[in-house]
Amino acid sequence: MLPDLQLAVRLQELDNRVTELTREISALPKHVAEIEKKLESHERKLEADRAALSANQKDRKKMEADIQVQEQKISKLRGQMLDAKTNEVYRAFQNEIEFCEKEIRRAEDHILELMGESEPLDKNVKAAESALKQEKAQVEAEKQQAMARTAEDKKALELINQERSQIVPRMSQNVYRQYERIRKGRRGVAVAEALDGRCNACHMAMRLQFFQDLKKGDQVMYCESCSRILYYNAPVAFEDLTGESASAVQG
């Protein structure tokens, strides 16, 4: 294979890796932002449940305090009934006592409702607190992993750029210019392998004579369909893979 072709193939490998690393470096902060956003939504849900539970408990205390007030009022009214001089006054005290007792029953019913509501709320809060603790630890671990991975990716990018800067001066300027032009116009892919008489990038079949000329490997050739730089790797013979001759294996 021509040196220019070898260098172009290697340059394409490096640029492909640059694309992968750049995409990953860009994606990692988005991933961290997503898991942090999810964590924040769970924290808000927990705070809402806590607020609901706190409001429930306050309402119960208020109802219990109202009951105490009504009971004290009943006790006072019963004492006053003893001093009633007429039936009308006595019945007025009795009616007021009945009203207080009705208020007590209403408050007690409300307390029972609040108790029924508080049980699932309390369970939700405890479960959410436990789950949130684990989620926070997981988010922190993923953030640390993302930071470490980003640092590794940036270091890898630096090494790739160093190798790339060493390859470019060794290529003929014309081939390099063509490489960059094609890469920009073909979504980052300027080099393609010829497989089974087809361009492995656009998958278009090549003319037989064109393919035969490409096999010779004595010139830089471009796909007649997509204009990418083409290279051909001759198939490896069986004996080259095993170190034995085919006849020896058959014998």
Topology of this protein?
Layout: H1 3-81, H2 87-167, H3 173-185, E1 191-195, E2 198-199, H4 208-216, E3 221-222, E4 229-231, H5 238-242, H6 246-250
Parallel strand pairs: 1-4
Antiparallel strand pairs: 1-2, 3-4
Written overview of the protein:
With 251 residues, the protein is mostly helical. The chain folds into two domains: 3-169, Helix Hairpins (Orthogonal Bundle); 173-239, no CATH class. 76% of the residues lie in helices and 5% in strands. Strand 1 (191-195) and strand 2 form a beta hairpin. Helix 1 packs antiparallel against helix 2. The model is unreliable at 245-251 (pLDDT under 50).
Brief account:
This protein is mainly α. It is built from six helices and four strands.
Please estimate the helix content.
Answer: over 70%
> Count of helices?
6
Q: Tally the beta strands.
A: 4
Number of domains: 2
- Biggest sheet, open or closed, and with what strands and sense? 4 strands, mixed
CATH T-level topology of the largest domain: Helix Hairpins
Kindly name the structural category: mainly alpha
Radius of gyration: 41 Å
Name the overall outline.
rod-shaped
CATH first level of the largest domain? Mainly Alpha
Write the H/E string, N to C: HHHEEHEEHH
Return residue spans where pLDDT drops below 50 for at least 5 consecutive residues: 245-251
